[in-house]
Amino acid sequence: MKLYTFHIFNAVGQCIFYRDWAREKEIKDETTEHKTLFGMFFTMKDFARQLDPTGGVEGDCNFYAFATNNYKLHFFETATGLRLLLTTDERAGDMRPVMKHIYSKIYIDCIVKNPAMEPRKPFTSSAFDSALDNYAAQLVTE
Questions:
Q1: H-helix or E-strand spanning residue 86
Q2: For 120-131, how does the pLDDT look when each residue is reduced to its tens digit (9 = 90+)?
Q3: Which of 119, 108, 110 is nearest to 11 (CA)?
Q4: Is 83 exposed, middle or buried (0-12, 13-18, 19+ CB in 10 A)?
Q5: Could you tell me the residue ranges of all domains in the chain?
Q6: What percent of the chain has pLDDT over 70?
Q7: Which spans in the chain are helix H?
Q8: How would residue 57 be classed by pLDDT, with cut points 50, 70 and 90?
Q9: C-beta of residue 64 within 8 angstroms of C-beta of residue 98
Q10: Cα(37)–Cα(43) distance, rounded to whole angstroms?
Q11: Domain 3-139 class?
């Protein structure tokens, strides 16, 4: 499995963190891409909810991922409204446990528990970067 990109958006749609591991296409306008990505997530989540044939009888209908012939985009939303988006190659399975680990073990430990950081605001943290990159390296396969 190959990891391409990782984004964290806050509840109002602001990209507070972005990591590029193996993206092959250069970004022309990062701000536009982030807005488009968040908007697509918001739209797809609403789309999945509206098309839910059970009408929510089984609980909220959540949207976790979508795949193309070239990549798979995974979504994870926290109770506090943070949205984590991970782009992988199309062979990746369910990445919700991976994204939950990134949130609960890396984001919480390096950002939320750090009194110098403001959770849900754009951040730079060498501790977070290092922990995220080390964890990501364990997931990558050829």
A1: strand 83-88
A2: 899 999 999 999
A3: 119
A4: buried
A5: 3-139
A6: 94
A7: 30-51, 96-101, 126-139
A8: low
A9: no
A10: 10
A11: alpha beta
